[in-house]
Design a protein that fits this description.
The structure is a single chain. The protein has helices at about 1-5, 10-30, 60-100, 100-115, 120-130, 135-160, 165-170, 175-210, 225-230, 240-265. It has about 270 residues and is mostly helical. It is elongated, with a radius of gyration of 22 Å.
Length: about 270
């Protein structure tokens, strides 16, 4: 870990992410105010000792909603990336290890998915199945699968004829044992770096979908919803727009820096 923390990108990204995770953990147990409680007598108040980041158009505490917004973004991102990781790994490993007709069919499907811009694909899925938390996670998971599948396929194709794999076959090891106990550890670092970059993409996509009204729905304290609601008060309450914008940017930058640092330390990836 000392080697990783000597990498500037990884170090800066880890510091930013740690601060965000502290807010997330605190939000599980306590927020300064109820995130949905309205107080119209104190709407659009500037940051003060009572409301550290001010209030929104309904008098709700922005600090509390920002903390819950970070929680929503990270939990949705984590679930989507984990699902994409698992399904992408399964698809890519079988495709890359066995090759042949299976590989051709799988890669045609993956190429078809990657032909669509990620957010457009998510919008299409949500338009068909409806918006909400579960459908947002499903859409973002589908977006993440092709990236992991291609990385896994590349790694398995490169290592399936390696000497250590041939030795395991001679010893009588089965295909699944070779695939997940011997080959997988050798490509895990690249998959983790991809997961970090995919996390940033998932957070940006979730915020974008919520901003457009296709993801989380009001009064949920999503950062995208906060940004959408704040745009009408840009001149009257500029801090209201700035807070969700900076929060989204910091989350995306943190995961991108960590991903870049991991790729640099692991030799640039495939």
């Amino acid at each position: 870990m000392g080697r990783y923390f000597r990498n500037t990108n990884f170090l800066i990204g880890s510091i930013i992410l740690s601060l965000m995770l502290i807010l997330l953990i605190v939000s599980f147990f306590h927020t300064p105010y109820d995130v949905t409680a309205m107080d119209l007598a104190h709407k659009l108040e500037k940051p003060s000792a009572e409301h550290l980041l001010g209030t929104d158009q309904f008098g709700r505490d922005i600090m509390s909603r920002m903390m819950k917004g970070i929680e929503v973004s990270i939990l949705i991102g984590f679930t989507a990336v984990l699902s994409g990781f698992v399904f992408g790994l399964l698809i890519g490993s079988f495709s890359g290890y066995f090759g042949g007709r299976l590989d051709e069919i799988v890669m045609k499907l993956i190429d078809t998915l990657m032909a669509f811009p990620g957010v457009l694909l998510a919008m299409m899925l949500i338009a068909v199945f409806g918006n909400g938390l579960l459908n947002t996670i499903i859409a973002l998971s589908v977006m993440a699968v092709p990236r992991f599948a291609r990385i896994a396929r590349s790694g398995y194709m490169e290592l399936r004829d390696s000497d250590f794999v041939k030795a395991e076959r001679i010893r009588g090891a089965g295909c699944l044992r070779i695939m997940y106990l011997h080959i997988l550890p050798n490509i895990m670092s690249e998959l983790i770096a991809t997961a970090s970059l995919s996390f940033a993409s998932a957070i940006m996509s979730e915020s974008g979908l919520s901003y457009l009204g296709l993801g989380m729905q009001p009064p949920s304290p999503s950062l995208g919803i906060m940004l959408s609601e704040a745009q009408d008060y840009m001149l009257r309450a500029p801090w209201y727009v700035l807070i969700p914008t900076v929060t989204i940017a910091l989350l995306v930058i943190a995961f991108n820096l960590i991903g870049d640092g991991l790729q640099e330390m692991n030799g640039g990836g495939r």
